[in-house]
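Justification of computing resources. Each target in the renewal requires a structure prediction run like the one illustrated here; the chain below, 138 residues long, is used simply to show the kind of job we budget for.
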Amino acid sequence: MTRRDVVFPPAHQALYARNRYSPAIRSNGFLFVSGQVGSREDGSPEPELKAQVRLAFANLNAILAAAGCTFDDVIDVTVFLVDPESTLDTVWQVLPEYWGEAPYPTLTGIGVTWLYGFQFEIKVIAKLPEAAERRSVG
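Resulting structure tokens:
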């Protein structure tokens, strides 16, 4: 079995350890990032939705940076929303702060009934820059 090339951010690891998953894995030139939520360092949810979305992006960006990426390297996004009918407009007010300019990544939005106490989760796949690929191989 091939050993997984796991990427950990400098902080926010309480949920990873508690739920036994890796924040991200480098593989074949891509970075596969687990769903990121607006969790505080202790793993608890940020209560206010806009702040929760911003914290989810901060957690996501920390993982991307640890792998040598930025959101500009993201090619595919999946967002999960609890009660999207009432939360989508609020989330969409925050996304432009992080989304960058066109061309945008692909996007799939999924409405769910439960996210471990959170209202928003974002999962991405990014293309690793060549320098980051060489670091992970060497």
